[in-house]
């Protein structure tokens, strides 16, 4: 009798992903995928996770103690995102489940979108486009769609991780901006010098910056880090850009500030309760809105998907993931 081949570990791919990444995973695993590409309800996700050792997640799937209790065989959740606020990491650690994210590969692409939103908001690009398409452009005027300068202005960055530093480089080197930043911890002097950034308190940043870019991870501590009180500190000519996570900004307070002209403009890629967008924001002309596309270029999304896949393969096949979030679970029985 021919020797039976050892069975491959089983994994679940929770959303549609690139066919080349599916093929790669299928070489190592028994794969169940989600051809419909709609987020499964929790009960369905739990049902499909039965018998699976790994899951490929894309950021929208909540992995918490209640779900993990139903999936005792699960060993790894690999997020195709640098943010992992969909993971209850302490619960995963308690359950002995490894979490991995996808850092590094999306840094420059996401910083590009941050800058695009900053430029579009400060220079009223989207407003101008709507104005033109609506057939309202019938003459030149000295004050038509005048905005604020980006070059030479003061850029305030809240959150100075990889993406924050990539935005600082763009501002300092490309646009001659003075860069100030606030972060949980101050960067080492060499890192500050490299991006020509000066550390300031949060309130000073909000008061001084001409443009504020938010790049902090979402956590209960950063929930509504920018609300009415913080917006009131900003200059009336200032712009606010959020490429981090919905919930860091109080969207209702932001819409009120934009409507009242308490700040000049905003550029938002992320929203509280997305894909729903606060109706008051939709009604504001001075905000540029994009549907969470910070990392959305073909090479970057492929790199993120490959990194998530390589984490699954690394851990379940070779025992060594690439970007573990809670490595302390490794080696536990
Ligand atoms: C993802 C992101 O596309 O990596 C992140 O944290 O925000 C984006 O790049 C998103 O998380 C997918 O849900």
Task: Please tally the helical runs, counting DSSP H or I stretches of 4 or more residues.
Answer: 13
Task: Report helical residue fraction.
Answer: 25-40%
Could you name the CATH class of the largest domain?
Alpha Beta
CATH architecture of the largest domain: 3-Layer(aba) Sandwich
Low-confidence stretches are none
At the fold tier of CATH, the topology name of the largest domain is: Rossmann fold
**Helices and strands, in N-to-C order?**
EHEHEHEHEHHEHEHEHEHEHEHEH
Mean pLDDT metric: 96
| Biggest sheet descriptor | 7 strands, parallel
Class of secondary structure makeup: alpha/beta
Order of strands across the widest beta sheet? 8-7-6-9-10-11-12
> Can you count the beta strands?
12
| Strand portion | 5-15%
Q: Give the termini separation.
A: 33 Å
What is the secondary structure topology, with strand pairs?
Blueprint: E1 10-13, H1 19-28, E2 30-32, H2 42-48, E3 54-57, H3 65-69, E4 76-79, H4 89-94, E5 98-100, H5 107-122, H6 125-133, E6 154-158, H7 162-175, E7 178-182, H8 189-194, E8 197-199, H9 202-208, E9 211-214, H10 228-233, E10 239-242, H11 251-260, E11 265-268, H12 279-282, E12 287-289, H13 298-316
Parallel strand pairs: 1-2, 1-3, 3-4, 4-5, 6-7, 6-9, 7-8, 9-10, 10-11, 11-12
Helix pairs in contact: 1-13, 5-7
Bound molecules: 2-keto-D-gluconic acid (8YV).
């Amino acid at each position: 009798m021919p020797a039976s081949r050892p069975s491959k570990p089983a994994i679940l791919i929770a959303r549609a992903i690139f066919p080349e990444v599916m093929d790669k995973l299928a070489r190592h695993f028994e794969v169940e995928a989600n051809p419909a590409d709609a987020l499964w309800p929790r009960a369905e996700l739990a049902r499909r996770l039965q018998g699976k050792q790994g899951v490929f997640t894309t950021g929208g799937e909540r992995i918490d103690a209640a779900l993990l209790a139903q999936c005792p065989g699960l060993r790894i959740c690999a997020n195709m995102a640098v943010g992992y606020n969909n993971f209850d990491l302490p619960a995963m650690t308690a359950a002995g489940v490894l979490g991995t994210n996808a850092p590094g590969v999306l840094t420059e692409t996401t910083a590009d979108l941050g800058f695009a939103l900053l430029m579009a908001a400060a220079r009223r690009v989207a407003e101008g486009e709507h104005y033109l398409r609506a057939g309202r452009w019938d003459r030149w005027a000295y004050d038509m769609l005048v905005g604020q300068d980006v070059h030479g202005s003061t850029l305030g960055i809240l959150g100075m991780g990889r993406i924050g530093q990539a935005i600082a480089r763009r501002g300092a080197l490309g646009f001659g901006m003075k860069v100030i930043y606030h972060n949980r911890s101050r960067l080492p002097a060499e890192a500050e010098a490299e991006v020509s950034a000066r550390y300031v308190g949060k309130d000073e940043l909000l008061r001084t910056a001409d443009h504020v870019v938010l790049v902090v991870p979402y956590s209960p501590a950063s929930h509504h880090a920018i609300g009415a009180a913080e917006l009131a500190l900003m200059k009336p000519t200032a712009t606010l850009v959020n490429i981090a996570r919905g919930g860091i900004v109080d969207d209702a307070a932001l819409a009120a500030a934009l409507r009242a002209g308490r700040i000049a403009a905003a550029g938002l890629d992320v929203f509280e309760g997305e894909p729903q967008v606060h109706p008051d924001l939709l009604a504001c002309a001075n905000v540029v809105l994009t549907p969470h596309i910070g990392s959305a270029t073909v090479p970057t999304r492929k790199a993120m998907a490959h990194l998530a896949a390589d984490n699954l393969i690394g851990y379940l096949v070779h025992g060594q993931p690439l970007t573990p979030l809670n490595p302390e679970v490794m080696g536990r029985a």
